[in-house]
Give the backbone structure.
Amino acid sequence: MTDRKTYPLVIFLGPAMAAIGLFFFIPVLAALVLSFTDFDIYALGNFSVARFVGLRNYVQIFNDPLFWKALKNTLYFLLAGGPLSIAVSLGAALLLNAKLVRWKPLFRFVYFAPVVTTLVAVAVVWRFIYHPRFGLLNYALGLLGINPIDWLGDPNWAMPAMILLAVWKNFGYNMIIFIAGLQNIPAELYEAASIDGAGFWQRFRSVTLPLLAPTTVFITIITMIGYFQFFAEPYVMTQGGPLNSTLSIVLLMYQQGFRWWSMGYAAAIAFVLFLFILLGSAAQTWLQRRRAG
Amino acid sequence: MRTVKSLGLHAVLLVLAVVTMAPLVWMFAASFMASGEASTFPPPFFPAHPTLKQYVELFTRLNITHYVVNSALLSLSVTALSLLVNSMAGFAFAKYRFAGRDKLFKLLMASMVIPAQVTMLPLFLMLNKMGLVNTYFGVIIPGLASIFGIFLIRQYALSIPDSLIEAARMDGAGDFRIYWSVILPLCKPILITLAIFTFMGTWNDFLWPLIIMTDDAMYTLPVALAGLAGEHVQDTELMMAGAVMTVLPVLLVFLALQKYYISGIMAGSVKE
């Protein structure tokens, strides 16, 4: 439009850039600095007590069994829950996209409803659904002849319980994006494949999946970023237990930073989390480019 | 063959719908049960004698009104303020030419990969120094501007023809006038979308309010509910009523405005 004056820019762009600079970029840099200090509860009252300790926090992370436990749990959540949730989303999208289906808006609304709910509230609800004696889940499994499971009390079952809740809560979101992707695939391609005698699976493999690849990469990245930040479910349902079996990286950061006030150490944990997310996103994008190129 | 296939499809869809709705329907049902009713075997799905007792207890003994007010005020003020700040910035990125514009925009896009948790420790220290811990400002400030919001508005504003802006300028309209009377009305659909996203995001947010609100009277609903659920492990029915109070407002907003919400997800997913 114009490049005559700067004052409109100051007015329009100023507030947003000031807010993002002050409350996002400066804290990111400050967190990096913080991660090289021994900032603790004493420094909270008087910042000058904190000293630079170089890479000590990062070395400590590397030697901290709790961190490895949290990383393992987070990766479990990500690598088991992520693909499962994407598969359910894709399945639901394929079903809803079928020509024969009626009442599409109703089904779409139902599948999407958990997405908008408050995570803390539904975690409270699911804590009771997982109750070993009076929970609905064990009751339903009992009808199928399956013995009761102590979902949140058994270290082997606590993570699957978290994953089940997350898949239930999130699949509707990716389903919507998949539906948009499916609707962009030209119908002629399916017709051509049908004429060539391709069955449902063949059409799915040679038309749907390849043309859906960009959508799938996008969904994989946002799902990964979201699942890495896994926090409220264990906070509400297990506090990280039993035996730290649901301790996540963000929960560990929260406990170190805001319960024990080891803020230098917690900042280093936050940066390690950031690094993992960055590497994950880069790997996804690289894989996609290599396939496309 | 067609009807068999159709029946099969609908059967699968119906089973998935029942499984998806069951936890939410049970939450509503259990919130109307008498105390202790949910903890019997076999677990009842519907209350034998529906009662409002749990809700009365929430509002009297547990004083939930505080938290409802906190959540509502915070969500509404973050929505209003961030809508103004983000729409101005989105407009500037779409319709003004200035040195470094594209670089700045790319930097903002790239920084979306930084998880918010990274900023939380210094932000807490900063707000603590400013005396803003335990105040509404502490929650509002990080929500003032959002990179995603700026992105959504910019993409939408790009499709507004420059000729409309030039015409308004010919008629003597100033920059702010153009933003307010030409751009904003044309951006209405995306503004509604962003408003819903922001409202729900703030209402549902947990980690940041948990960190910044240290005094019970300042808790938002999710923070209060998480605390209560830790103390009232046995009071299933009461906690379900608390969960309903937390979830109901966002479900109603979604029910009323789902068209805008869904289109927003699609707009957000087609970047690049």
